[in-house]
Fold each of these.
Amino acid sequence: MNTNGGFEPVFCTIVPPHVLDKLAQADDPVLAGPARRTLQRDAYERTQRRLTTVVGARALAAPATAEAGTPHRTIYDARNGTDLPGTKVRGEGDDPGKDATVNRAYAGLGATFEVLLKAYGRDSIDGNGLPLDATVHYDREYGNAFWNGEQMVFGDGDGEIFLDFTIPLDVIGHELVHGVTQYTANLTYFGQSGALNESVSDVFGSLIKQYSLGQTADQADWLIGAGLLAPRVTGVALRSMKAPGTAYDDDVLGKDPQPATMDGYINTGSDNGGVHINSGIPNHAFYLFATALGGKAWERAGQVWYDVLTGGELGQDATFEEFAGLTLAAARERYGDAEELDAVGKAWERVGVQAGAQAGTRAG
C-alpha cells in the first residue's frame, strides 16, 4: 500500500522509447530488427499492465516462513520465451549455478535489498518483506529490462548495441526502485511527475552501485547503465547524472538528449511526456547536492530523497518545483539549518528549478 492510497503499478523500462525508435530506423536489419521486436514486446507488456491495473494486480506477500529483514529472492528463466515468470532456476539461499546472468540477477536483488534495509530501514521494496522475483533470458535479443508492477524482467540484448541487462547493478536497482515508488508516492508516469519517477530510480540505482563498491560521491561515475552498451557503440552508458546529455553520441543511437537544466526542458508528447529525457534535470540536481556534501551519497543526500519519497507529502502528480520544495523541508527537518539545507537549495537553483516557498504547497 502506498501513502496516496492508490495501488497503480506501471510498466517501466530502462531503455527509453526514443532510443529504440532510433535503432528501429537503422538501415542495418541486424540492428533494426531486434529494436522493432523490443518495441512491439514493450507495447504488449504495457497494455497488459494497464489491463492488470483495471482488474486488480496479483496480491504478493512474504512467505509465512520468511524472517523479517531477510531477502526472499527467486530467479526464473524464460528461456528466450515471453511467458512470465518462466522456470525457477534459483531460490533464496541456493548456491550459485553456471549461468552468470542468473547469478548477477540474484546478487543484484540482494544488493538492492541490503541498501534499502541498512541505509533506510526498509524491509524490501514494500517495507514489509515483499518477495523479489526476477526473470532472465526474456524473449529473443530483447533490448530492455523492466519492472511490470510485480517483478523484474531482463533481456539478453542483441549483442550489437546492448549486452546482457543484468551486467549493470544500477539497472537492477533502478527497476526495483520503481517498485518502491509504486508502494510509496506512486508518482504518475507522465510529464514532470513521470520524470521524477524515472529520476528517483536513477538516483537510488546509482546509490546502490556506489554502496556496493564502497564509493564516495567524488569517486562515483554517476552513470546509469555503464557496461550495457556493446563495444561498437560510441558511448559510455544510457544516462549521466553528472553531465546529462553526454552519455552517448553515436551514428546509430544518435545523441543523448537529456537536459541538465530547465533551460533545456523538452515539451513532448512521446515517452509519456519525456519521462526519460527531462529526468536529467532532477538527476543533475541530486548529483550537485551529493557532491557538494561529499562522503557517502546514500547517507545524507540519499536520506533526504528517501524522506521525500516515503514521507506522505509528495503528490502523485508532483512537479519539479514541488519535489524541490519538499527536499528543502526534509533537509531542514532532519539536519536543521545546516550545510545540507544550503546544498540542496543551491543544487535546485543551479538546474533552474524554483523550490516551493513552503513544503507541500502545490504550485499554481
Amino acid sequence: MAKNKKKGASSGFIVAAILVAVMYILNTILVWNIYNNNNKTGTMTSTATRAINSIKGELSSLNTNTIGLAANLYDNPLEIVGDTERIYGNIIGYEKMFESLDMNDTVMKRYNYAKSIIDTFHEKLNSLGTDQLQEGDAATMNETLKQELYPLQVTADQMLTATISIVASETARLSKRNAIRAYVLMGLMALIAVLSELAIWLFARRAKKARAELEERELRLAEVDAKLKNTRQKATDLAVTNVLTGMKNRYALDNDISERLESGRFQIAVFDMDNFRSINDTYGYDFGDEYLAAVAEKLKEEFGDVAEIYNITGNEFCFVFNKNISESQAAGIAQNIQRVMSSPYEVLNLNVQLPCSGALYHYLPGDCLNVNSLLVKLDTAMRNAKMNGGNMINNVVNM
C-alpha cells in the first residue's frame, strides 16, 4: 500500500514537472514570438518609410532639375537631362526596395497610384525632347512645368505621404494582432499554471519531500510570472518608443493627442534637418544614427520640461507644448529648437552641422479629424519652408 502511494506520489510529481517544463517552453516561445513579430514589423515599417521618403527626395530633385531647365539656368541642358535619368534610376531602385516588402493590397493600391504618376511625370519630361532644350524654348518649358509637371510632382508626393500613413496604420494593426497573440499564449500558460498548482498540491500532502518540492515550484512559477510581466512591459514600451533616440514614436503621438483633437487647444511643432540624407551618403548610416542620437539627447535636455517630444520619422521631431505655453511663447521656443538642432555637433570625432526647417501650429478644437491630417498640415508647411530655401519656420495657416 505504501509502495503504491509512493508510486502515485512520484507519478504526480512527474506530471507536475512536465507541466512546469511546458510552461518554460511556452515562455520561451512567447518571448521569441513577441520579439520576432515586433522586429519583423519594425523592420518592414522602417524599410518602407525609408524607401518612400527616398523616392520623395529623388522626386524633389527631379522637380528641381525641371525648374532649372524651365528657367534656362544651366549652360549645358543635356548634362542635366543625363542627371535626370540618373535620378529616375534611383527612384526605380527605391521602388524595387518597397515592392520587395510584403505589403497589403490597400498600401500597394495607394503606392501604385503614386508610382503611375511618377512614370507619367517622367514620360512627360521625356516628351519635351532635346531639341527644345538646345533651342532654349523657355516658354514651352515653363508652360509644361506649370500646367503639367509640377502638379504631377505635388500629387505624387501627396500620394507617397498617404502611403506612409497607411503603412503606419498597417503596422499598428499588426502590433495589435501580435499583442492579442501574446495574450492568448499567456492565457494558455496561466491555465497550465493552475493545473500544475493543482497537481502539486494534491500530491504534496502525501509527504514532506513532496511539499518541499511544491514550495520550490511555486517560487519558480512566481519568477516566471515576474519575467512574463517584465517581457510584456518591454514589448509594450518597444511598440511606442524609437529604439535609436529613446523618444516616443509616431504611434505614441497618436495615442497621446487623438482625444484632444475634438475639444483641445494646444501648440504643436515639427522640425527636421535640411538635406540630412547628405550625412548618410557621406559618412554612412551608422554615423547618421549617432548624429540623430546626439541631437535627440540635446533636445530632451533643453526642451523636455516645456514639451513632450516625439521622434516620429527618421530625423523628424514633433513637439507638443505644455498647456501653459502660449502661442507667442511657443514661437520663441520654436526659434530656440531650430537653433539647437542647427548647432554643430561632435560625432565620432567629427564636427557636423546642418540647418533645419520646421512648422508651428496653433491648434484649435476641431481643426483636424485625426492625427494623420494634423501631421499632413505640419509637414506641408515644413516642406514649403524647405522648398523656399530651408532653414526657416513656417506657421500652419488654416484656410
Amino acid sequence: MEATHPVFCTIVPPHALDKLAQAEDPSIAKAARRTLVADAAQRTSRRLTTVLGAPTVAPPKGAAADAVHRTIYDARHTQDLPGRKVRGEGDKPGKDATVNRAYNGLGATFDLYLKAYARNSIDGDGMPLDATVHFDRQYNNAFWDGERMVFGDGDGEIFLDFTLPIDVIGHELTHGVTQHTANLTYFGQPGALNESMSDVFGSLIKQYSLDQDAHQADWLIGAGLLAPRIHGVALRSMKEPGSAYDDAVLGKDPQPATMEHYVTTGRDNGGVHINSGIPNHAFYLLAEALGGKAWEKAGQIWFDVLTGGALGKQAMFADFARLTVAAARTRFGEGDEQQSVLKAWSQVGVPTS
C-alpha cells in the first residue's frame, strides 16, 4: 500500500490570521502573530513526518471491533504534545467543558462514519481518536497533525474555544480520512478538494448529531466560533460562500461560489481554504435538491468517490465532478440522484464531461 503523507491542516486559514496580525489593537495582533508562529512550527513538524513516515496507531489491545477509543490530553497552555491525559474512553465527564466537548465531538465523528458508511474510525481499521485541548495561549486555531486533533482556546476577542462547533472537530478529523484514502495533495484544486471534503463531512457530522435534514441545516462551518464583537456568523458558508463574515478587523469572507470567481493565488497553498467554496456549494445544491438526510444520498456519493480508489492525489474539480456522476449512477441508477449531481456541478461552472 502506498504510504500516506499527513499534512498540517488548520480550520482558520492563513489569510484570516494574516489580516488579524495587522490589526491596530495590539492584543489582537499579538494573538494572531503567536498563532502564525505556532502554525509554522507545526508545519515543519509535518514535513519531517513526511520524510520519516507517520507512526502507525493501532487499536488498543483487547478493544472491541467497531468501537470508538478516545483519549483527551491537556497541553496546559504549552505547545508540548500530546500533553497530560485527562480523559480516556468510558471515563465520566469532568469539570472541564472543553475536555468534554472534545470527547463528544470525537464520538460524533466516529458514529457518522461507522453508522452511515460502515467505516471503522478514520483509517477504516479502528484507529484510536486522540485530541489535545488548551494548546498554547490565546491560540486561534485547531488542527489535525496526522496523528491527533489539537484545539486552541481562542483569544476571546476574535475567536472563542475551538471545541465549541462540532463541525470543526468533524472537519479536522476528516482530514485524517482523506489522508488514509485519496490522500489529496494539499495545494491548488486538489488541496481545495481536500478542504471541501472536510467541510462537507464536518457539516454532515453536525447534521447527524442534531438529526437534521438538508433543509433544516444551517450549512455553516464554525458557527459559534466567532466572538460577539465580530460581524459574522461562521468561518464559511456552504449555502452562500463569501457571506460568512464581513468585519473591519477580520476582513471579508473571500470564498467564491462558482468557477467564474475562482481565485488564483500563491497564498494559502494556492487558495485551498478559498476555492473550496466551489465544491462546497455544489454539495449544498445537491443536498438541497435531493432533500432528506444529506448524509444518506449526497454524502454517500461523496464518500464513495473519496474512498473508492479512483480519485487521484492530483485530482482537479472536474475530475472529482465526473467521478461523482459515475458514483451516483452506480449506487442509485440513472435517476434523480444522477441528474441532480449533473445540475449541481453545472450551477457552479464545473464541467462533468
Amino acid sequence: MNDRAALDLLVSQGPLTRTQIGELTGLSKPTASQLLGRLEAAGLVRTTGNVTGRPGPNAQLYEVNPDAAYVAALAVDPCGITAAVADVTGQVLGEERIGTDAVDEDAQDRTARLVAAAVDGALAKAGLARERLHGAVIGTPGALDPQTGVLRYAPHLPGWQSRTLREELAGVLGVPIVIENDVNLAAVAEQHDGAAQDFDDFVLVWADEGVGAAIVLGGQLLRGATGGAGEIGYMPLPDAPLARDGDRSAARPDAGGGFQRLVGAPSVVELAREHGVRDARTVGEALADDGVRAEVARRLATGLAAVVAVVDPRLVVLSGEVAQAGGEALRELVEGEFTGLALPRPELRLSNIGGNPILIGALRTALAEARNTVFDTA
C-alpha cells in the first residue's frame, strides 16, 4: 500500500524528494528511504537530479520510470482509426491515423490488420517495438455485449461484429485488449481532465455524426445489461421518426430515427437548408444562423429533459461536433429551453477537453489498467 501511494504521488505531482514523499504519505524518513530503494531496484522509479538553491545538502529528486510500461490507446470511427502510444507516466510518444482504405475491403482479418497498422505506426514514431506494449484500450461506437461478445449498436462499422473480436485483436497485437464505448471514454476524459472534474454524478451527451450519452453515477459508468446504457440516439421523441431494427445510420440525414435524427450533425446541416441557409456545408456554418441554432437548442433540451427525468444527474456535459460548433451561445439557449421541461435542474456545461476526448479517455483507461498491474509490488 505504501509503495502504491508513493507511485501515485509521483505520477500526479511529478518529481519529489524523499522528504516530500514522507510528508505526503505520513511515512518516517527511514521507511520512505527503504520504499524508494525497493522501487528503484524494481525499475519503477529513478532519480532525476537534485533540488538546488536551499541550505544544506542537495536532496535527490525521484520520478516514476517512464520505461516501466507502455500502452496504446485507439479511437475508431467509420473513416479510420487513430492510435496513440504513451509511457506509464502518460507522456504520449507517438500518434498515427490510418484510414479504412489502408486495407482492402475484401481482405481477410481486415479489422485486425487496420488496428495493427495504426498501433505499429504510433509505435514507430515512438521508437518502440510492439513487444514493449503492456496493453491497449480501443474506443468504438457501440458496445460489446457482455453476454455474447458482439459489438452492438454500431451497424455502421462493418467488420467489427465478430464474436471473437477481442481475441482476434489481442492475438494480432500480443497484449490484453479492452474494447470500450467511445462516448463512455469521452466521459472518462471529462471526469479526469475536463468539465466533470469533482462530479460523481453526471451525464455526457455526445452530439456528432452519431448521438449518444455516457451516464456516470456514484463515480462509476453505467453500462446496462447488454452494454447499451446511454444509447439515446435511438430514443423516441416528438417530431422524430422511430428508429427501428437498429437503423441509426449517420451517413444520411434522412436515414434512421429517434434523437439521432433531430440533433446528429447531418441533420443539423439539413435543418439549415430547410431554414434557407442553402450554402451550409458544415455544422459550424449551419449553427451560425440564429434560427437554426434556436431550433437545435429546442431539440437538445427536449432530449435532455427525458434523460434528466430518469437519471437526475448533478451535471450535464455537452460534447461532440454539434456542441463545440454551437459553443456558449448554443449552451445558453439549451439552458433557457430546459426551464420547465424537467423538475431536476442540473448544471449544464460545454466540454473543455482539448484534442480527441475519445482518445484521451482511452489513454486514461489504458494507463489505469497498466498501473494497477505494474505498480503492484506485493
